[in-house]
Fold each of these.
Amino acid sequence: MKTTHIAASSILQELERTLQLVRPEEIEALAESVASAGAIFVAGAGRSGLMMRAFAMRLMHMGFRAYVVGESVTPGITAGDLLVIGSGSGETRTLAAMAAKAKSLGAEVAALTVVQESTLGQLASACVVVPAATKDGSTGMALTAQPMGSLFEQSLLLLLDTIILHLMDRKALEGAAMFNNHANLE
């Protein structure tokens, strides 16, 4: 039991240290991009993709037109829309190709990544640098006891929830109002 408590405490310390290093102006720029987009499309691979799916769900709860790339009900992206990609390395080929395609169609691209100089970081008009370790541990500023990209993925979820809170504040929304868009068939 004591080991579990120590591990949880260590994870929380890593998250706090990492999140304090994220630049507030980058979060603000991403929130502004989301607020002004016609529709928001999200993408990520693996566990990062799961964090992005959670973000799309919260955006939908707020009344945004939000879609997960690759789902059968996702429409095409167009000019005025926003593609938000979460990728630790910023070099996942499929995601980089997706970002390039979105830009060629006139959509904006935003990225949350460890490496600002990455392909995705360079394609993005709004880039949030998350100073965590990538899954291979080769880049990033944070030392972590956690495996692979865990610190990035956890930080990604918390940063995306921070953006949701920022947008809720801008729209003067409370959680109860968002419940109207919550799933109700289960």
Amino acid sequence: MKVIVVGGGQVGTYIAKALIDSGNTVTVIEKRAASLTQLQTLFPIDCVIAGDSTNPKVLEQAGIVDADVIALVTGADEMNLVTSTIAKFEYGVPRVIGRVNNPKNEWLFTAEMGIDIKVSQANLLANIIIDQIDLDHMVTLMRLNQGDNSIVQATITQHSKLANHYIRDISALNDTVIIAIKRGNETIIPKGDTLIKVNDHVLAYTGIDGGQLFA
């Protein structure tokens, strides 16, 4: 499949790598200079497009005319929605997947806005983290890819490598994506400037050694 990933942050980078490893043709669109620099060290130059995904010329440069899927995973709901509308109704992309960052905006992610599939991190967290789970220990909730990758839940202790660090500063997260954080009664959709605190309940997608981050 030919896939366009819009957003080259932590989530977008992980998705792009996984898709390429699965044999797909992937192009990543990113407009932030810092993220572009990192992407260009990870992927071939022709797989990374610099620009704003709401600009049709940028989308065409990324190959949207014959794309099978576009995944909109930026941290800005408004950008994901505008791009989804252009992708679906101007270029007829068969499958448009949109990331919902703010749960209050979830109602906007509909077929009328060009979204075929919406992914809400907050809802994923709410549906998985339930009172019956023992939050004092790391829990493996789902194993993926024949056991090499997992969705795990863990409580951050004062000894954890993640404690009191901003997500953007944690180099060990190369093979781990923080999906959501539960802090008291608050559900947090993590971004680069999110500070992970002691006693946070973290939901993460990680590789086989990812559990060491929570030790």
